[in-house]
Amino acid sequence: MAVEMLSYIERESPLHRLSGATKLIIFLFWSTAAMLTYDTRILFVMLIGSLIIFKVSQIQLREIAFVLLFILFFLLLNNVAIYIFSPRQGVEIYGTSHELFHIWGRYNVTWEQIFYQLNVTLKYFVVIPAALLFIVTTHPSEFAASLSRIGVSYKISYAVSLAFRYIPDIQRDYKTISKAQQARGIDLSRNEKFGRRLKNAVAIIMPLIMSSLDRIETISNAMELRGFGKKKRRSWYSEKPFKKADMWAILITVVLFVAAMVITFHDGSRFYNPFK
């Protein structure tokens, strides 16, 4: 059976054995470091770290390929938008201008702009794989327990858990409804014109919305009957206790985070400037 998009993928890996709270803390430190720094050297090291962690997780690239392609598409749009609206951002940041060629008006291509947008791209490649790995290696119930452990309200934690559980359910319902409608003669293939395919898609979307509303009502009634929200605190069946591996992973992450921040801000700027 094909793996559902953004659903938990069970493997026997060191990353899966870490508690959800540990992975959440590591991800928060990792993403904060990537967002704060524009030091290309640090971003390259973090990129290598992301690739190593991905290898250790035993997650196959094809299992998250669709999401990665979707994100890469928006990365391309982001880079195009940066250049359209601020073609000299790199020049302003690094204080020099090494022009490669002129296009038109204020639009020219400089090494500074290329270098700046390279750093922006590296940030995506550093954070996105880590975020995807956190999602697909952490069970939704354990994810909720990890949020609760770091102080998030258990109501919010449970809502997040339900959302992640619901994503695979929606995908399965979509496939089921799609096959049922195609069996009734509704063509969604490329043989039909785009406008006709769009109209036929409504025959899937409406039943999908109705089934989703029915599921929401069922879950809400079940939670209410079980007294959800009556107490200020609750226990978690899927919560994992901290082990030595968790403590070492958090310690190493904190040390690397501090080192990255020291290197980034040692000269008073978070931008590494090779043009000086």
UniProtKB/TrEMBL annotation:
Keywords: Membrane, Transmembrane, Transmembrane helix. CDD domains: EcfT. It holds the Pfam family CbiQ. InterPro entries: ABC/ECF_trnsptr_transmembrane (IPR003339). It is a multi-pass membrane protein. The keyword Transmembrane helix applies. It is found in: Membrane. It comes from the Bacteria. The keyword Transmembrane applies. Coiled coil: none annotated. The chain crosses the membrane at residues 24-54, 66-85, 114-136, 247-266. PANTHER family: ABC TRANSPORTER PERMEASE, PROTEIN ABCI12, CHLOROPLASTIC. This is Energy-coupling factor transporter transmembrane component T.
